[in-house]
Specification:
Radius of gyration: 21 Å
CATH topology of the largest domain: hypothetical protein mp506/mpn330, domain 1
Structural class: alpha+beta
Shape: elongated
Number of strands: 6
Distance between the termini: 47 Å
Strand content: 15-25%
Largest sheet: 3 strands, antiparallel
CATH architecture of the largest domain: Up-down Bundle
Order of helices and strands: HHHHHHHEEEEEEH
Oligomer: single chain
CATH class of the largest domain: Mainly Alpha
Strand order of the largest sheet: 1-2-5
Number of helices: 8
């Protein structure tokens, strides 16, 4: 079994849309039904690619399979975060296949440009997504206490029945300073920008004074 097939098998066996994978991207998981659908579609694609590699199909035939699934999955009702997540997996598969043609096509399908500059394209997409998110969602913003970077929480979905039940200890991605965040009540789904979540302190155990004490403990560790 060659390295290409091994890499495809490894990706197939991975839980690509698990809660952990969403959280690693700073996102709350999407609906379970969508995650199951995306997981199945990608596994079907990978199974077809492995079969095509084993039967030594031509690069053009493999590209046709890739394009078919890309168009199928892309047509699903995905929000901007989900679409970006899906595109990253297609990019990973294209890199495994080591196909310059697929890389160029993926860039064209996704970003609407023929010139392939991955880093520039990703930056462009990220800026576009961020601009769209700022227009669509309420944002909780606070300054990092050290470097003054804006630490932002995008409210994706609200539910007024949800209480304010925790303080978050967060780490600025620019300077690594720890800060404390109280998101407040009514937040069902959210994503964050410029910080990492370090620890959640339930309010039934921590009032603000105790939460600040815990913050200082972590800073001195």
């Amino acid at each position: 079994m060659n390295n290409k097939i091994l890499a495809l098998e490894k990706l197939k066996n991975k839980e690509k849309f698990s809660n952990e994978e969403w959280e690693n991207r700073g996102l709350n998981p999407s609906e379970k039904s969508l995650c199951i659908k995306l997981e199945k579609s990608f596994n079907d694609l990978i199974t077809n690619l492995i079969s095509s590699s084993n039967t030594k199909k031509s690069p053009q035939e493999i590209e046709t399979i890739f394009e078919k699934y890309f168009n199928k999955i892309k047509s699903d009702e995905l929000d901007t975060e989900e679409r970006e997540f899906v595109v990253d997996y297609f990019d990973e598969i294209a890199k495994i296949l080591k196909s310059d043609s697929l890389n160029e096509k993926l860039n064209s399908w996704t970003y609407g440009t023929e010139a392939y500059d991955y880093e520039k394209a990703v930056k462009k997409l990220s800026e576009k997504i961020l601009e769209e998110e700022r227009k669509r969602h309420e944002i909780i913003s606070m300054e990092c206490s050290k470097c003054r970077t804006q630490l932002e929480t995008f409210i994706l979905e609200k539910d007024n029945s949800i209480p304010s039940f925790e303080f978050d200890i967060i780490k600025c991605v620019k300077c690594s300073e720890l800060n404390i965040l109280d998101k407040g009540c009514g937040i069902k789904r959210y994503r964050f920008l410029n910080y990492e979540l370090i620890e959640e302190l339930p309010k039934e155990e921590y009032d603000l004074s105790k939460a600040l004490q815990r913050l200082e403990q972590l800073k001195t560790q």
